[in-house]
Design a protein that fits this description.
The complex is a heterodimer of chains A (459) and B (451). With 459 residues, chain A is of the alpha/beta class. Chain A is built from 13 helices and 22 strands. Chain B folds into 2 domains: 3-218, OB fold (Dihydrolipoamide Acetyltransferase, E2P), CATH 2.40.50; 229-449, Chloramphenicol acetyltransferase-like domain (Chloramphenicol Acetyltransferase), CATH 3.30.559. The chains are: A alpha/beta (459), B alpha+beta (451).
């Protein structure tokens, strides 16, 4: 058993987007850094069983959808034949594998060692690594980047191979004839669309009265219309109150609807910060409700030597937030005046149509009693949208009624995920609607919808 | 949202400081100007006063830690009233920044006008993020400017880089913009325009030593473990220094006569196998004086409030060895004949040099004699060998010009330093005891009568 004690400047626990961002930046700033990851690799949930695989499959789903629409445009492809093996192989080797190798080579170049194993804190300066290469690491600083795990369905726990979480669903074990998706948030919707494109009859059940709770309704509507057409059924305001094995499938009891049988079930009811077994009780790190690690505006925990980034610090649990926090932490450790003072964390749902938003939503503004003006530009009026045959979109801008400063932006439609970046910049840099309106946007592009929405404020 | 006070620019090219002491705790409600931290820079140790009144939400640093300019030191809880909470409370009179220094410190940027209210912010009342680009926000952090207290002159009330720089340059702006250390301004006339400092209690000194600085930052170092003897000496000296209020009385003895006596008797003593030295005479003189002044031969029992007077006179003789200081003891010095003393002393010294001193050789002492001038020098202040209460140090005897009967004559003068425990004796007692020793040394013929 190794009793080897390694001395480092920075020990990062967890090699996901938050962890590797922190690690790479620390190394760039001249700090001797290691990243401890249970899987012995960089990328985390995002690369291996989350963001990347899901987007790869969603691309394929969109492709199939476009092909299905081609006859309207005068092109016939015929019905697509899907090889799950080839699809999985492409995802694993050409997408995930390629990116994973890329991360490993960056780590090598920057001199960041990736140590396989589970990191457990023994006290505020010492990390024990359990696994194939047991060792102890004495660090000057540590970064907790252990991420999150899919939440379990309360009250209806059942262990079965047919009940999947998002990670298992992305393995694409099979295309079930009937799939139940529990949860109408972004994960449920995205995965539902992938399976629907591949041929499953998807039933989606959501507890609240609408899909994507918390997002402005006018942004969700075009998506909801599409989902209605694509899925076999969408039950809003409905809970799943029981799951049991039945025949060669799962019998699900739906509130107010009795039991229905499905071949597989996807549980997508949220994610929970993960700090179990990390040994944090030996440090001064404060873990709050829901396992969330408390941090200040420099992502430092209550223990002055230990920082935390990413999902483990709570909502919004998004990879890009983790990455920015990782960079802030590296600068903070290196003694620079850094802070996580970002005004916006944009969010994107990669369904078709995509939905994206950043900053204040119309709902939030209303609840805060803030005087805002809202400008909506429907894509029906967009030249580019017409050329794509996709007029089912909307660009929306919220600005301060008095100063015209852009407070929030929302977009629904193909490419919303890319378009939202301009909105994020506008809000982050405190630009005014007139700044956006006065900037020339290329024609014909979907980005013009943003400029057009801003122009309505000048009238 | 908490207000974070970061280490502002220290000037003079200094970029970091080491936290020496943290003077506040999470949850403390403090007033502006109350010292928050003591930090040490390459130039000096200074106090950092609080830039505002309020409740400390979180202390981000700890003693021994090195922080760089711009790093967060302390977060204050938001007072909840937005823009106004940065202002010092109340009227300027008692709160004016008084010069405060724990050592010379670099002259800072001009301190803000005392008590001036902060400018009204140009944006919506202190809620929500302050409109500023990320670059501007970073600039504010670097300059230690609180954005919320800056009036934004940009479109829609946006805070620009210029606004931030103006705030940092001296217009009252926010916590970080204030001078960190407030030393006596170089060249300022004492008392000119300064109000008296508010009284503050002195910090209690605990016996817990503060953390050492990281010496490696100034050059290479090596760590060497202390030997057992060295450690013992270190611990005993620390004990004596900490527990005993030391007073030292200085005197000189004219040993011209004594020296002549020793020379005259060197050969006769040698035939008896004894090397006569000054030390044996010193021991004798000290022992006889101790009998006459028993409190210097005692120990103190503070718990019982008693002096333990010893009816025996065992004197320790400090000897420097290559291993360190060793103090073997000669027993019943008051009762032994001089030659006997000399013989015993020689034997003891030999045993110690050869590393053969026993435990018994080292115990039971009531008073210590130390030769502080063996290797040169004019004197020293010896430290009492706990649990004794006095120690006599003698330096090198020297021919010195002395005035006698109106004439300047050369005499052999021996400097003496008597350190004693002020709890058992006062200055007058010490002076009398020392004079007694001096007299016995200066009149060796009388000394002989007592042998």
């Amino acid at each position: 058993m190794g009793d080897l004690v390694r001395e480092v400047d920075v020990a990062v626990v967890g090699g996901g987007p938050g962890g590797y961002s922190a690690g790479f930046r620390c190394a760039e700033l001249g700090l001797d850094t290691v990243v401890v990851d249970a899987g012995g690799r960089l990328g985390g949930v995002c690369l291996h069983e989350g963001c990347i695989p899901s987007k790869a499959y969603l691309h394929v789903a969109a492709l199939m959808d476009e092909a299905a629409r081609a006859p309207e445009l005068g092109v016939e492809f015929g019905a697509p034949r899907v090889s799950l093996d080839a699809l999985r192989k492409w995802k694993t080797e050409r997408v995930v594998g390629k990116l994973s190798r890329g991360l490993a080579s960056v780590a090598l170049r920057r001199g960041v060692e990736v140590i396989p194993g589970r990191g457990v804190f023994e006290e505020s300066r010492l990390l024990r690594v359990e696994g194939d290469q047991p060792q102890k690491i004495r660090f000057a600083h540590a970064v907790i980047a252990t991420g999150s795990r899919p939440a379990r369905l309360p009250g209806a726990a059942l262990e079965s191979e047919r009940i999947m979480d998002s990670g298992a669903a992305l393995e694409l074990p099979e295309v079930p004839a009937r799939l139940l998706v529990i949860g109408g948030g972004y994960i449920g919707l995205e995965m539902g669309m992938v399976y629907a494109a591949l041929g499953s009859q998807v039933t989606l059940v959501e507890m609240t009265d609408g899909l994507l709770p918390g997002v402005d309704r006018d942004l969700v509507q075009p998506l909801a219309r599409r989902v209605e057409k694509l899925f076999a059924a969408v039950h809003l305001g409905t809970r799943v109150t029981g799951l049991r094995e039945g025949g060669s499938g799962i019998e699900a009891r739906l509130e107010g609807r009795g039991e229905e049988r499905f071949d597989r079930v996807l549980v997508a009811v949220g994610r929970r910060a993960w700090t179990d077994g990390l040994g944090l009780e030996t440090t001064r790190v404060r873990v709050g409700q829901g396992g969330i690690v408390g941090v200040d505006d420099r992502c430092r925990t209550d223990d002055p030597r230990i920082y935390a980034v990413g999902d483990v610090t709570g909502e919004p649990m998004l990879a890009h937030r983790a990455m920015r926090q990782g960079k802030v932490v590296a600068e903070a450790i290196a003694g620079r005046p850094a802070a996580f003072d970002n005004v916006v964390v944009p969010a994107v749902v990669f369904t078709d149509p995509e939905v994206a938003w950043c900053g204040m939503s119309e709902d939030e503004a209303r609840r805060a009693g803030r005087a805002v003006k809202v400008a909506r530009f429907p894509w029906a009026a967009s030249g580019r949208a017409a050329t794509l045959g996709r007029s089912d979109g909307l660009t929306k801008l919220m600005a301060d009624a008095e100063s015209g400063r852009v407070l929030g932006v929302g977009v629904v439609g193909p490419g919303a995920g890319e378009l939202i970046a301009e909105g994020a910049l506008a809000v982050e840099a405190a630009l005014l609607a007139q700044d956006v309106a006065a900037t020339i946007h290329a024609h014909p592009t979907l980005s013009e919808t943003f400029m057009e929405a801003a122009e309505t404020f000048l009238r | 949202m908490a207000r974070t006070f970061a280490l502002p620019d220290l000037g003079e090219g200094l970029t970091e400081a080491e936290i020496v002491r943290v003077l506040v705790r999470d949850g403390d409600v403090i007033e502006e100007d109350v010292p928050l931290l003591e930090v040490e820079t390459d130039k000096a140790q200074v106090e950092i006063p609080s830039p505002m009144s309020g409740r400390v939400e979180k202390v981000h640093v700890e003693p021994g830690q090195t922080v760089k300019v711009g790093e967060a030191l302390i977060s204050f809880a938001d007072a909840g009233d937005g823009a106004g909470s940065v202002a010092p409370r109340g009227a300027p009179s008692a709160q004016a920044p008084a010069p405060r220094h724990a050592g010379s410190a670099p002259a800072p940027a001009a301190p803000p006008a005392a008590g001036a209210p902060p400018p009204p912010t140009g944006t919506a009342s202190g809620t929500g993020p302050v409109p500023a680009t990320p670059a501007t926000r970073r600039l504010a952090r670097e300059l230690g400017v609180n954005l919320r207290a800056v009036r934004g002159s940009g479109p829609g009330g946006r805070v620009t880089d210029e606004d931030v720089r103006a705030a940092a340059a001296g217009a009252p702006a926010g916590p970080g913009a204030e001078a960190m250390a407030r030393p006596a301004a170089v060249g300022a006339e004492p008392g000119a325009g300064r109000l008296p400092a508010a009284a503050r209690p002195l910090l209690a000194v605990g016996l817990e030593p503060p953390a050492l600085p990281r010496f490696e930052q100034w050059g290479p170092v090596e760590r060497e473990p202390l030997s057992h003897l060295r450690r013992t000496i270190a611990e005993r000296m620390t004990l004596s220094a900490a527990l005993i209020p030391h007073v030292t009385h200085f005197d000189r003895a004219d040993i011209t006569e004594l020296d002549a006596l020793i020379r005259r008797n060197l050969e006769p003593a040698q035939t008896r196998g004894v090397t006569l030295t000054l030390t044996s005479f010193l021991l004798k003189a000290a022992a006889l004086a101790l009998v006459a002044h028993p409190r210097f031969n005692a120990s103190l029992d503070p718990a019982a409030g008693e002096m333990i007077l010893k009816r025996y006179c065992h004197l320790g003789v400090a000897m420097a060895t290559d291993r360190g200081l060793i103090v073997p003891v000669i027993r019943d010095v008051d009762r032994k004949f001089l030659l006997e003393l000399a013989r015993e002393l020689a034997a003891l010294a030999r045993r110690v040099r050869e590393g053969k001193a026993t435990l018994e050789d080292l115990r039971g002492g009531t008073f210590t004699l130390t030769n502080i001038g063996a290797l040169g020098g004019t004197g020293a202040i010896p430290i009492i060998n706990y649990p004794e209460v006095a120690i006599l140090g003698v330096a090198r005897a020297r021919q010195e010009p002395v005035v006698r009967d109106g004439q300047v004559v050369p005499r052999l003068m021996l400097p003496l330093s008597l350190t004693f425990d002020h709890r058992i004796a006062d200055g007058a007692d010490g002076a009398r005891f020392a004079s007694d020793i001096v007299r016995r040394l200066e009149r060796p013929d009388q000394l002989l009568l007592e042998l």
